Predict the 3D structure of the following.
Amino acid sequence: MQEITRNTKETQISASLELYGKGEGKITTGIGFFDHMLEAFTKHSLMDLHLKCTGDRHVDGHHSVEDCGIVIGKLLRETIYPIKSIERFGNGAVVMDEACVECDMDICNRAFLVFDMSCHADFKGRVGDFDVELTEEFFRAVAMNAGLCVHIHLKRGKNLHHIIEATFKSFALALRRALTPNERIAIPSTKGAL
């Protein structure tokens, strides 16, 4: 199990991650909907994540959400690399009622994020106490700090709650599949290193 503590003037975060866990989480960020999303991520990635964040929510939720993404990304990087004997590529599409979000991923130590919600007329606003625009900020922080190439694409959807939840779940599913052990692969690159 990897552990990390990150303290800044904006947030204080302590977290631990078990990569091949049981999907159990204990999440406290002070942002209810975000807690719900991280619990969904934990459940569907089958990782065990404990995370406590105290942030400057009197400003807004941006620092808390982004910094949690940074911490989760760093935990993933410390646990995954150097990679060996995993599938490396993963994808998953998750439907929630009218919404469908697809995530494709490469665990390649080259960070990149494509976050395409363009088929939603207005991907803005709030779900509970969560600013919708922070969804992209979270996934950017995770991808950049974990060294993941991630493409997230909204295929269809109207309800923001459904869209965001399908996004977190599809990311979890793609990550779980990419991390599937496969001893036959050894180092999953023709370069011999990632």
